[in-house]
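Researcher: I'm comparing several assemblies side by side, and this is the next one on my list. It has 932 residues spread over three chains. Same procedure as the others: predict the full complex and return the structure.
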Amino acid sequence: MATIRQLVLGTAASLMLGLAPAMADVTILNVSYDPTRELYKEFNAAFAADWQAKGGEAVTIEMSHGGSGKQARSVIDGLNADVVTLALEADINAIAEATGKIPANWRTLLPNQSAPYTSTIVFLVRKGNPKGIVDWGDLVKDGVEVITPNPKTSGGARWNYLAAWAWADKEYGGDREKILAYQRELFRHVPVLDTGARGSTTTFVQRQIGDVLLAWENEAFLALKEFGEDAFEIVVPSISVKAEPPVALVDGNVDAKGTREVASAYLDFLYTDVGQQLAAKHFYRPSRPEAVAPADLERFPATELVSIDSDLFGGWVKAQPEHFGDGGIFDQIYKPGQ
Amino acid sequence: MVAAALSGPFRKPSILPGFGLTLGLTLAWLGTIVLIPLAALVLKSAGLGWEAFGTLVTDPRTISALKLSFGAALVAATINLVFGLLLAWVLVRYRFPGRRLIDAFIDLPFALPTAVAGIALTALYAPNGWIGQFLAPLGIKVAYTPLGVVVALVFVSLPFIVRTVEPVLAEIDREVEEAAASLGANRRQTVFGVVLPTLMPALLTGYALALARAVGEYGSVIFIAGNIPYVSEIAPLLIVIRLEEFNYAGATAVAAVMLAISFVMLLVINLIQAWSRRRFGDGR
Amino acid sequence: MAADVALSVPAAEEAPFGDVRSAARPAKPWRPPTDETPVVRRTLIGIALVFLGFVLFLPLVAVFVEALRGGVALYWAAITEPDALAAVQLTLLVAVIAVPVNLVFGVAAAWAIAKYEFRGKSLLTTLIDLPFSVSPVISGLVFVLLFGAQGFFGPWLQSTGVQIIFAVPGLVLATLFVTFPFVARELIPLMQEQGTGDEEAALSLGASGWQAFRLVTLPNVKWALLYGVLLCNARAMGEFGAVSVVSGHIRGLTNTMPLHVEILYNEYAFSAAFAVASLLALLSLVTLAAKSILEWRYAQDIAATRGRGH
């Protein structure tokens, strides 16, 4: 039978290919979220070289990227991550709670609350800013279409939502009804809710849907780089959030695999001058700006940044269920007949 | 006629060996690969308790998502019932240049990853897409509306009906049609009175499979749907959303409801089919 | 009713009822009463082609146009890149395991269902169909519920150090689940059509059950069987949702081709994404072309097979 022959040939081919990858002395797995692909591609090479130069064994870093929540769930379900570098503190908290493989005080174990780089939320608009969008209030003007991913499925979108909340809180002096009305109006201007940040960028850039994309600052810069500075421009709103994508060592896994030393060094390397410069190069705001050439810092405009740990939000432990939990404020924004 | 001899259901025990072996193998494998995993699903959602389960399932958002998933799947399967039959007919009965190539084409939706299909369809039907740019001035929006969901589902479920009808159509005795014609039936009467009833079991099977496939589709739909709650949010996306909340029980509850509805739908169609097989005699 | 029908067809083409033409066939071109008029035929073909064009052909063209947008060199680079090759290799491996297993099962199930009458047959058929109707997200999720670290067998698996999900076994299981019905579903209607007469005859002539199956049943259904295998294989290679849940997305390690496509797409490497996708599309076209060639070469054989069914 022809099919059987095909199958046999296929098996042989795959077995032959299976011999191809060279074996490294040690392998660690970094489970990360979507927008860090470019950063870690370069960072991994730098770390491997540095580790060997310091007398360590040859190290291979495997990468897994995906939506932050989905990645956290994979680790909870047994994906053997040595380190996690996710978009939200809430996602690492979930791993810590569900598995006990990460200690509850993980945020205190690395500098800057375990966030080696930070970012913020900005607007990406079409060249010339035809709709004249300068701040959050402009997003709910008639005829403006806003592109953001779904806060239920995307970490970046939660930062978008919180940044809008921070502006509304300031604008309406903390009047909760008005803030809710603004958020409701904002999401009524959203024609497409993609499931991830990269999906939204594609919708905005490739499909030409919408007038403004709410995006991570690093993603907005990357979009400019990838799709041309002549087609889009970045608008920095008057107020935004300080997004702190955290990192953590998965103690339970590194001890089982015997990779604690190299995995810890990997995370520490994020805070070195080299690590910080690479973060800045890939449009993340370094946590140690002094390590980076001033010229590379200039592209990060100064604006008022609200922290998730401010009184307004009360930290992720409080904000996550309140805003994004089942039946939380975001769910209430979408009610039939509104 | 051999057909006549075989047409009645044989109730006497068969002399063919292997019933125990094959049925045993079937049940064992079915149990391992399908039933135990699905039982885990049911067990997990049972852990939710009836009340929580009820609240979750009767939530208006869940209901509107289920309505969209099943409604769009029904529309898509019905479109494919008509066009799938037409395609099967054209491919089996007529000879024209490129027929084999087109025949091979039909399976494309099986082979193309659903995400790729979703992206390709969105590229075509988005307002700036190849087809979308001609529809936009007419005020027709396909991508990012429920219509887009139907387009994606038509794509993924098309092969089922064509492929179940084709072999049966090829097997039909032309003599029956000749007999009908010689008894004075015109072509349309022959087709609708003689050929279609014979195809009914295959059409129903295809319809059931197409419907079932379309209801659960996720990969291609999320790209083209727009995913706006109450408008273009499909049930599988709600499942994913529950998972993102680390709410396994909630996710499995929606899944269990979808599973139950699909199961009943499939069972009813299979029963109709078994009945029509008995009634029309072995599908001939 | 009859008048309506007669009117809708050109009068010259319409044979009067009861005209016994089949008795003496005239030499001039003549349309048998079991064919449609050329006008109807062309209209039907036309509608079918237009429908296919919009639903299938354009998306396929879009895939190839996007894939080649960056030029042939880029296309070649995308499909020979190590991660892409690793994905191809993994996809083949999964299909090579899942397809034969479901082939054996599918034949057994079809035999049990098509050749015997028993209680609960409709129920069994429905259960076999069930994986079609389960959302791919769920097909992956069920294995996470079973074998995940928090799942029913999770703690036991961890104590023995066996990794099922986020590794090849998980990918195979999810693929087995989604491709479960294909072979059985393709065989059952045909084997039901063919009845049990041939096998009974073989047995009465002294053949064993296995011989009857191998020498009588198998040749009768071999095309449907091949067909089921091809579909099963296509789906096994193209499945996205279910494997996405159990894969873990480790680059170069647990990414199948459809997952690699998603990764590339999310890296804004649109041309590369479509290049890998086009491989899957090509694969399906090639296997189906192969099937068509086989069918053509053994056309007589098939005619005999079909003849025996009656």
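Model: For your comparison table: Chain C has a mean pLDDT of 81.
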